[in-house]
Each structure stands twice: as structure tokens, then as C-alpha cells.
Amino acid sequence: METPEQIRDRLLARFPGAEITVVTNPGTAAQHSLLLGAAHAAAIAQFLRDDATLKLDQCSNVTGIDWPEKEIIESTKTTVPDPAGGAPKVVETKTKRLQPGYLEVVYHLYSIALRHGPVILRLRTGNRTDQVTVPSLTPVWRACEFQEREAYDLYGIKFEGHPDLRRILMWDEFKDYPMRKDYVEPDDYEWEPTPHGAVLAKAKTHYPSPAAQPPDEPSVASAKEGAKP
Amino acid sequence: MSDAARPVPAEQATPASPTPIQGVVITDRERDELRRQGILLTSLQELYTWGCSNSVWPLNFGLACCAIEMIAASMAKFDIARFGSEVFRPSPRQADLLIVSGTVTKKMAPQVIRLWNQMPEPKYCIAMGACAISGGPFKQGYNVLKGIDRFIPVDVYIPGCPPRPEALLHGLLEIQKKIKGFKISGPDAPRHLREDINCHCPVPEFGEHDLEPPTNPEFWQAPTIVRKE
Ligand code: SF4
After folding, report:
1. Which of A103, A157, A229, B11 stands 20 to 30 A from A178 (CA)?
2. Domain B65-203 has CATH 3.40.50.720
């Protein structure tokens, strides 16, 4: 099978002006992927499916990813010549940069006819709040339908051109996107025999230690807990 | 042995002075002896509970992995038919026993409660497995109900992940024991024989973040717990 770079070059020849970037995977799996711009994504997908040498006729998996805003600290070293004529000094300046967050969809494509794959496509949204639309690939691969609905349900990625974009796992009235990093789950904590980590932190807010409990009023916290709706 | 057939406990009755007008007082042994001779002395209550307890028909309904064990219990090797419960009814209108066998997601919970409401009295509920009892391995998640007893009254809890079919049979025997202890009149009668108890369980609505309400306070209150240091 062609490498992602070869596929990119062929695509660029076929779709001049399309945004296609190869995203390399530095890990041992070395599964590099193609990041597509929204404008040409659907046409490129159609081409990948019908092209005689690729024939990517199966979309096996659609994954959603949430990339929250990240603070990146960059340090730059500059050499300042000493005005007194001594050796030049190296000054390190640190700049903070806020990398905006975005949502991402990853498609794993295989060819059953030619028995090769995967070719990995990525689509990114503009941000995590109001520009969350990417083109749907369901018209190209029917198998994407439920998986794109799942990505919509759990991450809030809107797929333009999807034939039936509704929630699939959560109920229709649900307002949150539970797989996003900043999701706050309903506070229905209940006693856990061996709490640790995040659960221990929750446990501490919900039932007190004997030291914090006045000896003659043993159910202060439980009254609060019982009053919880 | 029912109390109606034996107005005075046999041990306390003075066998020398039974008044023939009030009725015959006989011991359990004498009754068994009569049975062996083909004479059946019984009461309506005994007949009623005997009939009820040996024809507990479960609802044909499974939710997750625990349902596989429930199915195994109904097949030849474990043979739930030995206890009169082989008739799994596909309609709640014909069922006596709701075996909540598996994970109850919040999306599924209103349907489970609706099924329970559709079953005619007398009806019984078994919470089978860690999930149905407390949410089990998914307890700290956002979309699993932390125990079906937050919404419907549970008669028997069967712990395990999953419980073995023998455990389910044991649970069924416990239900039978409970039915055999029923009084058919008076203040100790079960809820379906009394006018003053409303057997309807309110069905929660799908809210924007959680079920509304998240528990039914009539059935479930958060326990009083003090954390160990
Ligand atoms: S208790 Fe265990 S076996 Fe039963 S439904 Fe839950 S996870 Fe599955």
C-alpha cells in the first residue's frame, strides 16, 4: 500500500488547493494519518473509496477526541553581546502561549477488496464551543452512521450532511457531552468501601471523618446527604 | 402450617380439653398422618400461598451479562422448572417476578419501572448481581443507576458478578419462603391484599443532566456513614 505521503501527493494532484497534512505518530505503531480540511474532506473520502489502487471500501472505526485548551511554555535563547566587550551572554526568555482546544474525529479505513489498510483520516473542529461542525462521511461509508452519532452524543461534534444526527446512547433531553474532559457528572455519590484517587476526594466531601463529626450529633452529614434530591 | 388451621399452637394447646364446639385442635404430626391416609385438612390461606409460591412466573427480560446466568438457570442443567418457574412470560401482564438481571442504565431505568408497574399484583422483584444492587463495576460512572432499589421495592438481593444460577435458584426459594409466610387478611397481609397501600411506582423523567428525580425517597435514603480515618 502507498505511504501516507504518497497518498497525500496523489490527492494534492487530484484536488489542487485542498488542505492535507500528514500527522506523524512517533510511537512504535507509527500509524501516520492524514489531516483533512473541512472543504474537501467529503470529496477526498469519495476518491479514496473509489480509487482503483486504494479501494478503501470499509470504514471500521470512528473515534472522537477532545483536546482541551493547553498552555504551552516556549523558551527561546538569544545571544546578547556584552557592551563592555566581554563574552556574549545567552539570555533565555520564556513565553506562554495558549493553544486553543478543538475536537477531533479519526476514521480508520481498510480495503476488503485489496486486503490492505488502515489509512487514517483526521478531521478537526475550529474550537470546542461554537465551531464544532465537520463534514459527515456517512454518505461515503454507511458504516459511519451510528459511530458519528456516538461522537455527536458523547463529544458534541456536529456532522454536516449526516442523514439522522440524533443522540444514540444518552436520551434526547440530555444536555451535556459526557466524554469531554470538562464534563461534570451528576453528584449522586454513594458510599464506597475502598475509595481512592478521585473517588476518595469525592468521598471526603460527602461523608465526614469521625474527627469532624460532633460526638453528640452523629448524623449531621447524613441529614445533608439524605436531603439531597 | 398455617395459623387458620391451627388456632392455638400445638405445643401450648392442652390436648386433654379441646372444646368440640370451637373446632378440632390437631398437631402437625397428626395432620401429616392424615395426609398420608388421603385426608387433606387445609385452610384457604395455605392453599393460596402454596399455589402462589409454586407458580412464580418470571418476566422474560434480561439487561446484561447477568441475564446469561438467568438463562442458564432456566435451561436443562439447572432447570428452574423444578421450582415451578419455568414459564418465562414475554408480557408483563402475565408475569409475577421481575428478575432485574444486569446493569440498569439511566436511559433504561424508566422502562424497567414501567414494566414493573405493568405487572399485576402479587409481584416480586429480585435484584440479581452487583449492577442491579448498587451499580456494580459501573457505580462511579455517570450513566448507570446505583441500584434498582432506588425506584422499585426489591424482595431479594443476589450478590455476585454474575451470581451463579444456583444463587438465583436460592433467591427464588427465598421468594417462595416469603410467599408461604403471607397472611391473606389483616394488617400483616402483603401490599396487594390491602386497600391502603398504593402499589404504583412513579416513573422518573429524563432530565437535562440526570433522571428527575434521581431516586424515589419513599424507597431509598442515603445511608448514614462516618468515614474511617
Ligand atoms: S453484576 Fe457483573 S455480570 Fe452482572 S450485569 Fe453487572 S457486570 Fe454483568
Report:
1. A229
2. no
